Amino acid sequence: MYRSTKGASKARRDQINAEIRNLKELLPISESDKSRLSYLHIMSLACMYTRKSVFFGAEGALEGTVPLISSPELADFVQSLPGFLIALSSEGKLIYVSENVSEHLGHSL
């Protein structure tokens, strides 16, 4: 009985690890950044991108609204900022961090 429980636990861990590796491949970041991520970072980024998608909707805007500027214009605007952009939900959950955060903090997501 002990042996089967141990085997079931290993099978469950292997399945979880395989799904985390699948999540890693879906993240919209460079391969070099992906190679440095731990399993915890992978799950954290997956949650962040999911929250961002839910918050902004599938098209990047709240349902029933018209975006003020297009995505390329927004990207240009964020890059022209003298700092970086960070967005949090009303619950304090991280939704978005601009790519230029590494220039200012030395870290990237």
Using the alpha-carbon principal axes, give the shape: elongated
Query: Residue-averaged pLDDT, rounded?
Result: 78
The value of Rg in angstroms is 18 Å
Number of strands: 2
Helix content: 55-70%
Poorly predicted sequence stretches spanning 5 or more consecutive residues:
none
Spatial ordering of strands, largest sheet? 1-2
Largest sheet: 2 strands, antiparallel
Key traits:
single chain, 109 residues, mainly alpha, 5 helices, bHLH_NPAS4, DNA-binding, HLH_DNA-bd_sf
Strand and helix layout:
Elements: H1 2-26, H2 31-35, H3 39-56, H4 71-80, E1 86-88, E2 94-97, H5 101-105
Antiparallel strand pairs: 1-2
Helix pairs in contact: 1-3
Describe this structure in words.
GO terms for molecular function: DNA-binding transcription factor activity, RNA polymerase II-specific; protein dimerization activity; RNA polymerase II transcription regulatory region sequence-specific DNA binding. Residues 70-109 form the PAS domain. Strand 1 (86-88) and strand 2 (94-97) form a beta hairpin. This protein has one domain (2-105). It has helices spanning 2-26, 31-35, 39-56, 71-80, 101-105; strands spanning 86-88, 94-97. It is built from 5 helices and 2 strands. Helix 1 packs across helix 3 (39-56). The mean pLDDT is 78.
In summary, what is this structure?
The protein is mostly helical. It has helices spanning 2-26, 31-35, 39-56, 71-80, 101-105; strands spanning 86-88, 94-97. A two-stranded antiparallel sheet has the order 1-2.
